[in-house]
Amino acid sequence: MLAGNLVNGLLLGSVYGMMTMGLSLIFGVLRIVNVGHGPFLMVGAFIAFWMFHLFGLPPVVSIPLAIAAGIVLGFIFFYLVIRRLVGAPELTTLLATFAIGILLEEIAKFLWGPDFRGFSWNVGKLALPPITTIPMSKIYALISSVVIALILYLWFRKARSGTAIRAVMEDSEGARVCGVNVEGIYALSFALGIGLTVLGGTLLTLFIPVGINPYMGGIYTLKAFVIAVLGGLVSPWGAFYAGFVFGLIENGSYTLFGLIPSIEPFSMTRFLAFLLLLVILLFKPTGILGGR
Amino acid sequence: MVGLIIVVAFSGDLASSLSQQAQLPSEILIGGPISLSGTYAKEGSQGLWGFQVAVKWVNEVYGGVAIGGQKIPIKYIYYDDESKKETVTSLLERLITVDGVKFILAPYSSGLTIAGAPIAEKYGVLYNSHGGASDRIFEQGYKYVVQTIVPASRYQVDILDMVKALDPEAKKVAFLFEDDEFARAVRKGALDYATKLGFEIVFDRTYPSGVADLTPALTEMAATKPDFLVGGGHFADGQLLAKQIRDLEIKLKAACIMVAPTLPAFGEALGAAAEGFTGPAHWEIGVRFSPETTPWWEEYFGPTQEWFIDTFREISKGVDPDYHGAEAAAAILAYVRGIENAKSLDPLAVRKAMSFLRFMSFYGDWGIDPETGKQIAHKSVLIQWQHGKKEIVWPPEAQTAAPWYPMP
Amino acid sequence: MRRRLAKYYPLVPVYALYLTLFLIGLHVRGMWQSMALLAFYAALGQAFNIFLGMTGYVDFGYVAFLALGSYGMALAVSGLYKFDWLGGGIVVIGLLLALVMAGLLSIAVGGIALRLRGAYFAIATIGVNEGFRYLIEGARLWGGSEGIIISRNLREAFGTAGANYLSTFWADTLIFIIAALAALITVRYMHSKIGYALTALREDEDAAKVMGINTTKYKIIAFITSASLGGLIGASAWALKLTYVFPADVFAIIYTVEAIVIVLLGGAGTLLGPLVGGVIYAALKYWLSVTFPGLQLLILAPIIIIIIVAFPQGLIGVLKAKVKGTALEKVIV
């Protein structure tokens, strides 16, 4: 039973990681916590839904579209709002990103209504007796996450713009002195961060292709915070690994809490997640995976 | 003590100023706060359309509320409460005092219904709950609160009846409900009934709202080898529950999930995976409640089902009604019949008349417990997804198709 | 004497405004609940501002204190309603319990999380709020997810009319009182060591530390004050007024966000700001929900964004700069 849970946790963790990289990237570069994170995931989930519903395209095929749409959204919001708030006190940035989230939700509701939608992309199952049975779509989610993370890694290491982002992350003043167009990097990082987040939403539908609606994002914002903190908050890679850790903890601790009578193990796993968040913030704010 | 004297003096003053309207108005105001945005936006929009259909029927087909030898039309007034408790109280007071509404349609959900009840009680206006299912609302001793929706404790009892009738061998039931006020009330009702019928509850867990992955609970449940599952909560989690039962290939003879399967979106989202899932519905397109099926000793009131569905689609621009829309319409019909029986627009007189009101409509039976105002007459049905369609499978007298048992 | 009183002059416009709202509610038919709504948001802003406005720390989990306050009241009422001789004392005990529970949580959180700064602090407080909620649900504390309903208990203790009046009049009046109290405390803090220390801290925390200011102490004082007032608001505006407490409803982060909007709209760290912000915010929302049902958030969100970008110092902040050097300088604070 525990083994089955852990396998599922690991699979879900890959999506969690992908979903959180954007949050960490934006915080790492701009020092802005995107409290409107969840609604961007919702956009990605809707992209996957509409592509499947209208054209029969599976979510894996929608990935490039999701990234592109996210990057465009990211640039729009950066130049309209975020550009003016870089370096502003937390108060304004937290509120601004939250308001952007509400705006997205309400636009989505206006366009698509409050219905709970979903689709089924049946591509067979992988039986792992006696542990569990896994739909292939979840395996594709894992593969996509890892491949995208790998591409991103190479781009960060090799491409000029990628290394520039890393430089700004380390020390924005130093980077400016070295001739890096810091404002351009801010814009690019924000757009890329949103692109990854929207993409995360699309990948999420490989795992959970149901319950897609304008207000679905909120719960994932909170999860993403925990994961980002686990990963050290400033590092997208930390977040990616932390996603796996979080998936394992979430599903693994259920079994353990289940042994204690008269409590609800599911709610306790969430309690544990937030407790973990506090403990890490207090004692190891660089994350459990060490350093940046 | 002084405060209490002021209390009595002040509220008495208000009550008398409200009741000094012996003359019949040119229209009867019915209205309420409704959730058009926020958490309950989905249920709220169904409710709004349902109200609008009922008002249209009363005014245009029925000709208005018959009282004092006249036919008076209804005017429906609503404001968006954003699914928030603060907003409910102020909008309610506005409806009651500024607009002069004496027949309130309570907001959606048990919490918001409780939030508004003290205001309704203070002003002595009727408060008809079409979306607050919790039994606890009716344990608080309110005088003006009545219920049209089926109380939560009765949501998940039909499935137990059905399994007992179809398969006396099936003894092991698993409970997996959402962890919130509403779902827990349903669970408690089902738990009591299951124990009474002699079922063995082999698994009993809840999951938090907004759950993303149910596999840990489902894996644990599968290990207890239940014959059938009773559970659910709202829309998204219900869809997820069904989806993951299929993903994990858990064998069940029946799975009854509340709320989610009653929506067309359930079948659209899950496709073939939806086949065989059942759910309790307070009403469903195709239920056979019509003037013809109504027994001679009961009165049929309101539009026919065809009229209701056609008009609903017209007003909603193509969206099909679900039970939220139907029970909203029934709440208005109950007010109309209550006013006519009371021959008065005084809320207390209408409340008394509603105590003894029994009628049949396209929605089914309506009748409350005279003491508490709780809905006791309405019976829900069980639907099951068969060949991509919702069929009514229980009770036998309402069937549109025989139940698939065990489920595929 | 005059000098000692002079620092209270800024309270004149604040109290005049609260009194106006109160009197409109009392005398204009059908306006009481609407004025109570304005007062609720003003009080929320006023209490939140004591910590956020003065320190610049964003407590995103502030709503947890309102939640605990509402539990305090609900526990007191449901536990004590049988004791007739207590009479209105039940409500007093409820308020005290709310104060204690919110206060204890704030000491715990303040003692631990206030070591963190900026975004880290904001995220930590979100964690406290969510963690507490799931602990209540998971460990089935205080009724778990089913919460506590106290309608019946209130009716048994105070009679039907008394309970109605308590929920629809006294609960709202209490909010006015709490708001007035919060304003008074704000003025007192502004003109005491706490205010000066916190101003220094807000400008540059490290520099303030170097100057020998015990920043932690003053931060915690402001934090506990703000949290306790929040507990009182929760006890009155939620438990007493709405007669129920469900964890999903009272731990809703949206209230923190609304409090931030109010403070920012009016002007962080000002006295008049939260009141003006609260009144404008609530009135705008109310008007939108009546005029454009279902679309108010779609309209409100861009307005909030524009305000943040165009007037980050808030309405009173702008006004303060305008009246500098004029006679009004003393009262617009």
Keywords:
heterotrimer, B: 408 residues, alpha/beta, five-stranded parallel β-sheet, four-stranded parallel β-sheet, 12 helices, 40% helix, C: 333 residues, mainly alpha, two-stranded antiparallel sheet, 15 helices, globular
Summarize the SSE layout with pairings:
The complex is a heterotrimer of chains A (292), B (408) and C (333).
Chain A: H1 2-30, H2 37-55, H3 59-80, H4 90-112, E1 125-128, E2 132-135, H5 136-158, H6 160-170, H7 172-177, H8 182-207, H9 218-230, H10 236-257, H11 265-283
Antiparallel strand pairs in A: 1-2
Chain B: H1 2-19, E1 28-34, H2 41-62, E2 65-67, E3 70-72, E4 74-80, H3 85-98, E5 103-105, H4 110-123, E6 126-129, E7 145-147, H5 158-166, E8 172-178, H6 181-197, E9 200-207, H7 215-223, E10 228-232, H8 235-247, E11 254-258, H9 264-270, E12 278-281, H10 305-316, H11 323-342, H12 347-355, E13 359-361, E14 364-366, E15 381-386, E16 389-394
Chain C: H1 2-6, H2 11-27, H3 32-55, H4 63-80, H5 89-113, H6 118-138, E1 148-149, H7 151-190, H8 193-203, H9 205-210, H10 215-242, E2 244-245, H11 247-250, H12 254-266, H13 272-291, H14 296-310, H15 314-323
Antiparallel strand pairs in C: 1-2
Helix pairs in contact in C: 2-3, 2-7, 3-7, 3-10, 3-12, 3-13, 4-5, 4-10, 5-10, 7-10, 8-10, 12-13, 12-15, 13-14, 13-15
Q: If you average the pLDDT of chain A, what whole number results?
A: 89
Describe the global form of chain A.
globular
In terms of DSSP E residues, the strand content of chain C is under 5%
How far apart lie the N and C ends of chain C?
21 Å
Fraction of residues in H or I helices of chain C: over 70%
Uncertain segments of chain A are none
Count of helix runs of chain C: 15
- Shape label of chain C: globular
Q: How much helicity do the residues of chain A have?
A: over 70%
**Secondary-structure element series of chain A:** HHHHEEHHHHHHH
Structural class of chain A: mainly alpha
Spatial order of the strands forming the largest sheet of chain A: 1-2
Average pLDDT figure of chain C:
89
Query: What is the quaternary state of this protein?
Result: heterotrimer
Main β-sheet of chain A, in a few words? Answer: 2 strands, antiparallel
Strand content of chain A: under 5%
Beta strand count of chain C: 2
State the largest interface: B-C, 51 and 50 residues
Number of strands of chain A: 2
- Alpha carbon gyration radius of chain A: 19 Å
Profile the largest sheet of chain C. 2 strands, antiparallel
